[in-house]
């Protein structure tokens, strides 16, 4: 975009009306042609002082969960005009085709950087090659892409989903020992997130890597509820109908957990600290941590959505011609009733 602005500056002195009109109309044309189903940040019309801003196209996968909203906010708070950015935002509503459209639109607008949270890991080679051919660096955030050519992205910022899954398994091992139930048959159901997303793959494989060491742990069923509360309730209702003897629920994000809790309440099934069903959740957003504090969720494995500041630092290093790491893994915690209270006050999301 800075290159476009340079050209416009020359044009501006020659054809002021045409250039300013073009720059004010261009975003509207993109919106009217459906390239931007929704620009959730008002794109300010061009004004000369913006020409030094770094233009970033941000393709966010959706707004499916409380965690996602916090993640989006973290990026918007970090990439502002005051910090030197002109941010173009697109919400893909968990549809891969929308993300591909948004990335192509960013390329045609010749943004300086593309920031991208891929809804699933596969299917990105073509559009990432187009960005590479256009000379636009791609910064992956939150989830990974599965590509042979790692030069298709500059760096990745995210969390270790496999470690999150293993933390859940190791917590269950400790919990069952403490309850003297380590030799009991334990019936487990799993609510999975979006199938083929890094979070779902990692949390599923991580937990199963621990579960396979325990012949008395029986995973009765694993099913996706798309990381949403609505689907979490519907899928859990079905599981409760199918399996009258569930001992443990592993729910791969807090929104699905909230839905599953509603389904258990409806069915008159007790859960949590003193209940029949032990509840293991992921994300650790505030509403769920409050339920940990009330003993309704036994443990919440944190997945830290505050990743925007990393993008700002990485872009500033790239702008200064400095090198960056190929990946940045964000630190995370695990919350139970024993430690959650001291974190609640500071948890803003
Ligand atoms: C995790 C992230 C997941 C969260 C969900 O890295 O991709 O997506 O766990 C969100 O809440 O929908």
Notable features of this structure?
single chain, 349 residues, alpha/beta, six-stranded parallel beta sheet, six-stranded mixed beta sheet, 12 helices, elongated, binds beta-D-galactofuranose
Q: What's the SSE blueprint?
A:
Elements (H helix, E strand, L loop, with lengths): L1 H13 L1 H17 L21 E7 L5 H13 L6 E7 L4 H13 L4 E4 L8 H9 L4 E5 L12 E4 L2 H18 L7 E7 L5 H14 L5 E8 L4 H14 L5 E4 L2 H13 L11 E6 L2 H8 L5 E4 L5 H12 L7 E3 L4 E2 L5 H4 L5
Parallel strand pairs: 1-2, 1-3, 3-4, 4-5, 5-11, 6-7, 6-8, 8-9, 9-10
Antiparallel strand pairs: 10-12
The protein binds beta-D-galactofuranose.
Plain-language structure description:
About 40% of the residues lie in helices and about 15% in strands. It is an alpha/beta fold and about 350 residues long. The strands form 2 sheets. Strands 2-1-3-4-5-11 form a 6-stranded parallel sheet, sandwiched between helices. Strands 7-6-8-9-10-12 form a 6-stranded mixed sheet, sandwiched between helices. Helix 3 packs parallel to helix 11 (about 310-320), helix 6 packs parallel to helix 7 (about 200-210) and helix 8 crosses helix 9 (about 255-265). The longest helix has 18 residues, at about 160-180. The protein is elongated, with a radius of gyration of 23 Å. The relative contact order is 0.12. Beta-D-galactofuranose (GZL) binds near residues 64, 68 and 199.
């Amino acid at each position: 975009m800075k290159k476009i602005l340079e050209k416009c500056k020359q044009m501006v002195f020659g054809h002021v009306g045409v250039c300013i009109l073009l720059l004010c109309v261009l975003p509207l044309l993109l919106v009217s042609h459906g390239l931007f189903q929704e620009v959730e940040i008002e794109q300010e019309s061009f004004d000369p002082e913006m020409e030094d801003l770094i233009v970033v196209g941000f393709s966010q996968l959706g707004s499916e969960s409380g965690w996602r909203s916090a993640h989006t906010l973290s990026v918007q708070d970090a990439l502002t005009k005051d910090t030197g950015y002109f941010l173009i935002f697109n919400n893909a509503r968990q549809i891969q085709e929308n993300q591909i459209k948004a990335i192509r639109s960013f390329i045609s607008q010749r943004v300086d950087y593309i920031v991208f949270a891929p809804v699933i890991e596969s299917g990105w080679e073509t559009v990432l090659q187009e960005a590479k051919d256009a000379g636009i660096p791609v910064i992956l955030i939150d989830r990974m892409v599965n590509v042979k050519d790692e030069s298709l992205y500059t760096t990745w910022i995210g969390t270790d989903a496999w470690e999150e899954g293993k933390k859940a398994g190791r917590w269950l091992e400790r919990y069952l020992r403490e309850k003297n139930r380590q030799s009991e048959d334990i019936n487990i159901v799993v609510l999975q997130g979006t199938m083929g997303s890094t979070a779902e793959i990692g949390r599923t494989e991580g937990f199963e890597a621990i579960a396979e060491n325990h012949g008395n742990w029986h995973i009765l069923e694993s099913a996706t509820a798309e990381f949403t509360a609505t689907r979490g309730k519907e899928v859990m209702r079905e599981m409760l109908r199918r399996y009258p003897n569930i001992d443990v629920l592993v729910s791969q994000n807090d929104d699905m957990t909230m839905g599953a809790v509603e389904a258990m309440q409806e069915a008159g099934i007790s859960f949590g600290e003193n209940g029949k069903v032990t509840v293991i959740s992921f994300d650790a957003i505030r509403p769920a941590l409050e339920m940990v504090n009330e003993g309704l969720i036994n443990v919440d494995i944190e997945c830290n959505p505050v990743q925007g500041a990393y993008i700002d630092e990485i872009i500033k290093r790239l702008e200064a011609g400095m090198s960056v790491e190929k990946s940045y893994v964000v630190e995370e915690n695990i919350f139970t009733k024993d430690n959650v209270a001291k974190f609640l006050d500071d948890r803003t999301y």
